[in-house]
Amino acid sequence: MSLTPPPACPAHSTQSTGLMPLSAAVGSGDPQAAYRRLRDEWGNVAKVELEPGVPAWLVLGYRELLTITRQEQLFSRDARNWRDLNDGLVPLHSGLLPMMAWRANVIGADGPEHRRLRMPLDNAVARMDQRRVRREVEALCTELIAEFSPRGRADLVNEYATIVPMLSLASLFGLDTTEGRELLDALIALFGSADNSQSGNRNFEQIILDTVRERRRNPTSDMTTAFVSDPNLHNEAEHLQSVVVMISAGNETVTAWISHTLRLMLTDPRFAARLRGGRLGIDDALDEALWRDPPMNNMPARYALHDTELGGHVIQRGDCLILGLCGANDDPAIRPGSDEESWGNRAHLAFSAGPHVCPAQVPARLITRTAVQTALHLLPDMRLSIPAEEVTWRPSPWTRVPVSLPAEFSASRIATGIRR
Fold first, then answer.
1. What distances in angstroms separate CA 18 from CA 22, 97, 301, 311, one per listed residue?
2. Are strands 383-384 and 313-315 parallel, antiparallel or unpaired?
3. Residue 201 to residue 342: CA distance in whole angstroms
4. Core-most of 60, 76, 140, 392, by most CB within 10 Å?
């Protein structure tokens, strides 16, 4: 596992800080209400608990979030600056580390090093054949729906939204269906930041490493080969981590984005009527979902390089700051007054901001748009099988993905002409 631990691990505290656990906010029925309570108590920068005994600042203000994402000279992405990790408050076995510990990749770098490692990601996305990818994703979506449509019911998360992005990304990077499903299981564990997070990370990286080594021996036209052959990447570790970033950034978030858009279709009659009636275009619908419930509710992290002030609070050197993307989207200083005012407005922070803005926005939107459009076309009368308030969420302080989304629809047989 390519995580860099602190040099020593003194006794750590497992005592709760008395602060709101971040995972409780993400997993609540109304996370925006939880973030509003935090804003009422603390202002635009609130103290929260990442795991028992581990505090952090949650940045809920839109302008404050732009400040910490744009000022690399003060707020670093390099977790080796995290005081609580270096002091041993965060144990080596912590489930936070696969998401938060430093890695030798674009996420953990600042300045010129970040720009060098970022260039291969941007180049790979720019070379992507979007028409071919859209056709392949549409064929995959059609096939998945054809498998469950004769039953007249399905779990639109576990039988659809979780499978589409991983198998689509696996195909882009030259992995087969079995490897794609293994990656999916590993990533669910990794993003959960719980006891199985580190083992999930090890499994995830081993599958990618095997593919990287195979492409070095036998190059193809896939994106793994593009990274292996990119002159900006200097060694196997950088090849590995570049693929890790793209797949991890693209999978969990797209699963959440597809799920949330379909959930709005099934639970919000006004949203559904506007979309089905043509008053709301598909991309506007996708962006409304991002405003309301961004896939990454919270994004780790920035680390203060000097004592400073933010949102009326003293931030000390080494403090951890979490990007509260959902809370910042709901900042009353910038939030549109109504859903209609957000149509066509992409000023949301669902993809973060600054130099570390998400590198996978283009494939993410392409896959999500295709998955939602295909479901709307092939399952026009789908409806939720349970009350909306009974939808529950996978445990995570970061991503907000429904445990399931059981739906019913008219049973039908859909011809695909595809054999996998």
1. 12, 22, 21, 21
2. unpaired
3. 37
4. 60
Q: Which residues contact 419 (CB under 8 A, 6 or more apart)?
A: none
| pLDDT at site 420 | 40
Long-range contacts of 176-183, Cβ-Cβ distance < 8 Å, separation of 24 or more:
177/420, 179/207, 179/211, 182/207, 183/207, 183/208, 183/247, 183/251
pLDDT in tens, 100-139: 989 888 888 999 999 999 999 998 888 888 999 999 999 9
Determine if the pTM surpasses 0.90: no
Low-confidence ranges of the chain (pLDDT < 70): 1-17, 187-196, 200, 336-344, 415-420
Q: Which amino acid is at 352?
A: S
Distance CA 334, CA 203 (A): 41
Give pLDDT, residue 280: 76
> What are phi and psi for residue 50, nearest 5 degrees?
-80, -40
User: In angstroms, rounded to a whole number, what is the distance separating the alpha carbons of residues 3 and 242?
Assistant: 14
Report the CATH architecture of 22-408: Orthogonal Bundle (1.10)
Q: What is the DSSP string of 365-378?
A: HHHHHHHHHHHHHH
DSSP state of 195: T
Question: Domain residue spans in the chain?
Answer: 22-408
pLDDT in the model for residue 119: 93
Confidence at residue 351, expressed as pLDDT on a 0 to 100 scale: 87
The identity of residue 269, as a single letter, is P
- Distance, CA of 377 to CA of 227 (rounded, Å): 36
